[in-house]
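One-letter codes give the sequence; the integers encode the fold. A sample entry reads:
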Amino acid sequence: MKKISYVIGLFVLATCLLSCEEEVPVKDMGLESKLVLHCFLSPQYDTIAVTLSRSKSIFHKGTISAEVEYAVVEISSDNKTWTQIPYSKENNCYLLPQYQFPIVEGKTYYIRASSPNYETVTSSCTVPIWREVELSTEVAFETQSGKYPYYGTYAFLSLSWKDYRGEENYYSAMTAYLNYYEFYAPTAVVLSDKGKDGEKMNAFISAIEDCTYSDFMEYSEYPKYIIFMQTDRNCFLYENSIGMNRESSWDFESAFMIEPSLVYNNIKNGYGVFGALTFKTYKVDFRKETVEEDDFLK
């Protein structure tokens, strides 16, 4: 009797599964290929650069060209009058010199891209207004006993400043040059002043391994060059999500237990990010505790 019931149960289950079988278009499942757009605006850049590619459906077999060359990519400052951004085959992206379309602090910009067989993607962002903050240096000597790369004795180099009070601010900092004695985070440090309005902010720049105070005083006779950025919310969320993905990939021991982290996306009908930032460059001497503006990128 038990065997009969078991067989009947299997039959009923198989019948149910067969009756539910139906071809569902990939588009209806939300898995179709979409346009992927990346663009970061800044008044300090001399050119607007847009990369446009296509995502790959999980059901797609074979290879697929990533770049989308024959698309119409346009930018606007009022969402009415649009300027086309031409494709540069040499650079595999869409480029527009800023003398033809200037980017200004405090203004909102709109972008759209269309290509045959794809939905038109759109987005917008507002360029942050640069707020003067006074940067200072901090050095801390610590012995680490954690996982790679943090074990041994290190000199941790940081920048600090006081947050501009009364508004939502996002910051980013990165070292423009490092020698072989150092390592630093693969992505720029990104920070938000949420819950810290008007308070002291601190950004890790780099670390020197096996370094005592006397070693540090001898080593740091050469200045460092720092790019200090003030970004919009889109840049912050995107870079932060990229950093979370990278950090989780470092933890090999528990990788199978880590929940996948989604990368931030603000592109309607597609994927990617459209953000804005302003920045200044500085020469920093951690030994002398000096921070000076320096146009080393020019």
The first helix runs from residue 2 to 20. Residues 136-262+277-293 form one domain.
